[in-house]
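Researcher: Go.
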Amino acid sequence: MRIDAHQHYWRYDAVRDSWITPEMGAIRRDFLPAQVAPLLRAAGIAGVVAVQTDQSEQETDFLLALAADHPFIKGVVGWVDLLATDLEARLTRWQHERALKGFRHIAQGEPDDFLAREDIARGVAAVGRRGYAYDILIYPRQLAAAQALVARCPDVRFVLDHCAKPPIAGGDLSAWHDGLVRLAAHPNVICKLSGLVTEADHRSWTATELAPALDMALAAFGADRLMFGSDWPVCLLAAQYSTVHDVIMAWAGQLSEDEHAGIFGGTAVRAYRLEE
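Model: Structure:
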């Protein structure tokens, strides 16, 4: 089963979605599963993982409702307050939701040491004990904190979103690469090949410019710990869905048939337990 492991859906609200600035006009509107369905069919993608954008439990419920109505949404990465004193009870509320596969907090918007905090690690460990994965969304400067979190939670399945956002537009990948290699040393971390076009120049990026970051991720994690994600609709700031898909497909042409199948489905199925 071919999987797109990273998509977002929302009914646009100017207050709630204030992160979508006026300069991001291409995505300042509703984006729902029916809009992407024909694009998935054209690309031969059978299923997707829907990932939270709003820091609320209502967001988790919203994505679960969409999954119930659209069978191609094979998994949901929601949000829960990791610091809640009743975290276990909050998680219990969703225990029968088969589509719920993981959780995420938008750590890139937090202080750089956020993920290194012991209270955050306790919350993530509680999530992991329930069998959920945990997505890490960070900038390169926060890689050290992510490594501290992963070291504290060796039994949790972690998914690094967007390769930790390599500074492709800036050109110097050295600091990002060093942090990525250290994080990849932990075998319980899987990396999404997603969100890269929006880290390049939105107007003039080329596949050649993306290749070094992709190659470094491959060297750090190995093909069996990489997965494809489109980051639709955020990717529309820099490229159409088909372009994002085709760039990763072309890059993965260097890999074996099994490795290619893993990146475009098998790894996501394993990381998010999509068949359970």
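Model: The CA atoms of residues 50 and 76 lie 5 Å apart.
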